[in-house]
Design goal:
The protein is 49% helix and 16% strand. The chain is an alpha+beta fold. Strands 1-8-3-6-10-9 form a six-stranded antiparallel beta sheet. Strands 2-7-4-5 form a four-stranded antiparallel beta sheet. A hairpin with a 2-residue loop joins strand 9 (197-199) and strand 10. Helix 7 (209-227) runs antiparallel to helix 8 (233-249). The chain is globular.
């Protein structure tokens, strides 16, 4: 049987919740890797097994099961012509976000310089999931909140819901490889996820060699656990992820623990409620019961950017979502997020994402760092 036919038969069997051998799934993953995606073979296998266990009825892929059932069964599998048509149908309906409906998923991804140079801009549309990344070789340049961060080996990133960032190649680096985990946090982890902020929804830590090696081992254990069909798998995965988060968080000295100042939390809540309306620093200071100067100092220290910078980041994240989900003009989207002047909105958007709103809109829905 040709590789094309085997891949089509394997992918259909997964959707139909039929048994699939590991070798067949690995060969299907090799085909998938050629679709210009940062998701590696291991990540795709985790994705495929997730679909096999639970395919939501409203998923675009769910329609493929009844549509192709007769062709798949009639000859003991697809013919070459049917396989080609099925794979076109499958890739047109592919929704990587299905992978991240599980409590935790993990994988390893690699990007080459050419893909990074093509431009990558991401605005989180998931209001529940967080991402934890650890770079183990190469590097990339992340831009968020109008600032740049070099991601090199040993750097860990914690990306919260609503994050907005772009990626570009890092000077003298031709590739970037990193472990990733996407998860819905346990409420007990609230303080452990309070990392030093690089930008509004992005925390960053530099791990020591020992902690970095332990993080890699935990990522590997987590991936193995999620692939295994064994009792208490979900509980074990939860425990491994908790260890991983704690190992990273322990790298922050107690003297640098950012804590959570309730006054700054009130300020953030005010900005989040009024981000698309005109307001002054004084109004935010009154809501936080701080002087404007004290607010400005504490807010930058804990959030990684100024009050108005945080407002602009919220505006840009919402604008990015509207550009990909609504049939609205640039001026209308700018007005919806608080910019009466379309030209000023376009300049601000370009400064944050590195591309103009119209160019971003033409790109379609973005990928994610984790293939999240």
């Amino acid at each position: 049987m040709s590789h094309l036919r085997e891949t089509a038969n394997t992918l259909y069997a997964l959707l139909a919740r039929q048994p699939v051998e590991d070798g067949s799934l690995a060969r299907a993953a090799a085909w998938f890797e050629r679709l210009d995606t940062p998701i590696d073979e291991r990540s795709f296998i985790a994705y495929a097994r997730t679909l096999q266990r639970s395919l939501p009825a409203d998923s675009p892929l769910a329609a493929l099961v009844p549509r192709w059932r007769k062709a798949w069964r009639s000859r003991g599998g697809f013919s070459a012509t049917q396989a080609r048509a099925f794979l076109q149908d499958y890739t047109a309906r592919l929704d990587p976000n299905l992978l991240f409906q599980a409590p935790v998923t993990t994988g390893y991804a690699q990007w080459d310089r050419q893909r990074l140079q093509a431009g990558f801009a991401y605005a989180s549309e998931n209001q529940h999931s967080w991402s934890l990344l650890y770079c183990d070789h190469g590097g990339a340049r992340l831009r968020a909140g109008g600032r740049d961060l070099a991601i090199r080996p040993g750097r860990a990133l914690l990306i919260g819901p609503g994050a907005l960032y772009t990626l570009q190649p890092l000077r003298r680096q031709d590739h970037w490889g990193y472990f990733w985990a996407v998860f819905r946090p346990d409420p007990r982890w609230r303080e452990w996820l309070n990392w030093p902020r690089f930008a509004g929804q992005i925390g960053a830590l530099a791990l020591t060699g020992h902690t970095g090696a332990r993080a890699v081992a935990l990522f590997d254990e987590l991936a193995h656990c999620l692939r295994a069909d064994e009792a208490l798998r979900d509980a074990l995965a939860h425990n491994l992820l908790e260890q991983l988060i704690l190992r990273c968080r322990a790298e922050l000295p107690a003297s640098r623990d950012p804590g959570r100042d309730p006054r700054i939390e009130r300020a953030r809540a005010f900005v989040e409620s009024h981000y698309n309306e005109p307001f002054t620093l004084q109004a935010v200071a009154r809501a936080a019961n701080l002087s404007p100067s004290r607010l400005a100092s504490l807010f930058r220290a804990q959030c990684g950017l100024s009050v108005l910078g945080y407002r602009d980041e919220l505006r840009m994240a919402q604008a990015a979502r509207l550009l990909h989900s609504e049939n609205l003009g640039i001026a209308a989207i700018g007005a919806a997020v608080g910019y009466a002047d379309p030209a000023y909105f376009s300049r601000t958007f370009s400064r944050h994402l590195g591309v103009a709103p119209r160019e971003y809109q033409a790109q379609g829905r973005p990928d994610t760092l984790s293939g999240h």
